[in-house]
Structure formats: C-alpha cells, structure tokens
Design goal:
261 residues, alpha+beta, Hypothetical protein af1432, 2 domains, five-stranded antiparallel beta sheet, 11 helices, globular
Length: 261
C-alpha cells in the first residue's frame, strides 16, 4: 500500500521537523469525504500525541499507520447506517460496533501492515475503565496506540459536522475529553492532547471567569487552555493584556466561554 506508507512518512516527517507544532483541527481538515478526512485528522492528532509521549520514529510510523486505517471496518457497514441523519436504533448501533473487528480481520490479510498498527483498528473503541468494545479491555491491557487513537478519534468526531449533529468548538471538545479523564480515556494521553491542542485560536473572543471579555493574541505550547489575551472594553480592544499561562496573580482566572464578535 505505497500511498498510505508515503502519507505516514510525510506525517511523521512533518511532526519530527516541527516538534513545537500547535494543532488546529480546522486547518487539518482538507478533504470532502468524511471517513477519509477523519482518518487523516486522527492520524495527525495521534502522531502529535505520540511525539509528546516520547515515541520513537518506528513507533510513530506504526501508530500513524494504525490511525490512518482505524476505521477500515466501516467499509463493511451499510452507508445508510453510517450516514443516518437520526439516532441509531439499538440494532444499528450493534452493527456499527462490528467495524472494529471487521477492520482488524481485514488488515490481518494485509501482510505489509505491522501488527502494532492493525491492533489500532481493533482497540480504538476500548475505554480505559473497561466499558468499551469489542473486548471490554481496561487500562494498559489496551495497547498504547489504541489508547492514543481513542482520544484522537473522539476529538475529531466531536469537532466535525455530522448528519445528526453540529460540530463542537475545540474548547468544548477538550472539556468533554477532560470529563472522561481516567474513565473513558487514558489520563496520560488526555494530558498529551491538552498540551498540544490550541482550543482558542488567535483572534478568538473569549469570556473570562472574571466576567471580562478578551481576545486571544498568543497561544503557548503545552498550555493551550491558558493563552495570552487582550482585554476588550465596550467592544474595543485595550492595551491591557493578561497572560493566563505565566502571570502568577492570574492563576485563579480561567476562560469560561467563547463570545461572538
């Protein structure tokens, strides 16, 4: 599968040469087909988190390959179920859940795909608490690549428009994933995501916990939830800045929401 291998190498090379990359999911999305673009986004997010977690080049290669192919099994699911614009019936959801094992079995016939990559297709819906599928694995019984892809998969799904719901803001998606800390998701992987994602892109108007309005002017690596902001008064930018990451007097101040311009 030379095209996939080339894509994996390109992604790994991009991350390897830009270790301080800040990922903005809006900029990643470049394809019309949801399944393909979702897989690409999940691969990029996975390799960024893998880099944060200290994986070497070979490990990043296998992780990225697995993330690109994690939803392979969906090609065996009827399109009317995959793209249904309403809530799935219990029977339809059970059908969707078969994509993990179907994808893994399909990849087992692709000898050029490493086992550590194939396992991502099988395990990306396992949950850290043991309440996922298909095997109900928990904690480190789930392969690290599966735990990484699980977080990347949910984050990208939440920030994507789907037939049955509108996309979440990146900040709300991060909050959702944080709520699954140590239950749905591996806490180490959640920490890696939170440190590498910029949920409030530069230019975003935000509301602070103090009630003030501000505009994001700078994001910091590894503290994406605490950017540098410029205060807005009466709808106009001031020259007053708050550095949420580095100003020790502002440690109790947080971003409470996004404000329409």
């Amino acid at each position: 599968m030379p095209t996939i291998k080339s894509l994996v190498h390109n992604i790994v090379d991009e991350v390897a040469h830009n270790r301080d990359i800040m990922v903005n999911i809006i900029d990643i999305r470049a394809y019309d087909d949801y399944t393909y673009s979702h897989s690409l986004n999940v691969a990029v997010l996975s390799v960024v988190m893998g880099t944060m977690l200290g994986l070497n080049r070979k490990q990043l290669h296998d992780l990225t390959m697995g993330a690109l192919l994690h939803d392979t099994g969906k090609m065996f699911i009827k399109k009317e179920i995959l793209n249904k614009p309403a809530r799935l019936t219990p029977e339809e959801f059970e059908e969707i859940k078969t994509h993990s094992e179907r994808g893994y079995r399909y990849l087992c016939d692709q000898l050029e795909i490493p086992e550590n990559a194939r396992i991502v297709a099988l395990q990306h819906h396992e949950q850290f608490s043991g309440k996922g599928y298909p095997a109900g694995l928990a904690n480190t019984d789930i392969h690290l690549y599966g735990r990484i892809c699980c977080v990347a998969d949910v984050y990208d799904a939440l920030t994507s428009d789907r037939p049955y719901r509108k996309s979440m803001l990146p900040s709300d998606a991060i909050e959702y994933i944080m709520s699954g800390y140590s239950t749905q998701f591996d806490p180490l992987v959640v920490d890696a995501l939170a440190k590498k994602i910029a949920p409030y892109p530069v230019g975003t108007y935000v509301r602070l916990s103090t009630g003030q309005t501000a505009i994001v002017v700078q994001n910091y690596l590894e503290t994406g939830l605490r950017p540098r902001v410029k205060l807005i008064v009466n709808g106009e930018p001031t020259e007053d800045y708050i550095d949420l990451a580095h100003d020790m007097s502002m440690l109790n101040v947080t971003i409470s929401g996004i404000v329409e311009e």
